[in-house]
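hiii, so i know i said id send this last week but things got crazy w the move. better late than never?? heres the sequnce for the chain we talked about at the cafe, plus the structure i predicted for it. fair warning i was half asleep when i ran it
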Amino acid sequence: MAMSKMSRACEEAAHQHDRAAAHYRHSARHLEKGEHAAAAKERDLALDHSEKARIDEVGLRPDGVVSDERTRSEAAWHFMG
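okay and structure toks below
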């Protein structure tokens, strides 16, 4: 992968992680106010951004494969969410 393409992929993954973090913060604020539906929506958006970041990160791996350990961990978080 060319360095400029790798750099863009890294920046995009970082951006998606930042967006996920922002949605989690908004979710927490909604929960503090007792707004459970809005909190769930923000949490879903955060998970979407996390998944986009994960996809970007897979492209950065030399083998393009995600470890099974991580996949199981993410499945557990989705189940708990």
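btw The chain has a mean pLDDT of 82. thought thatd interest u
miss u guys!!
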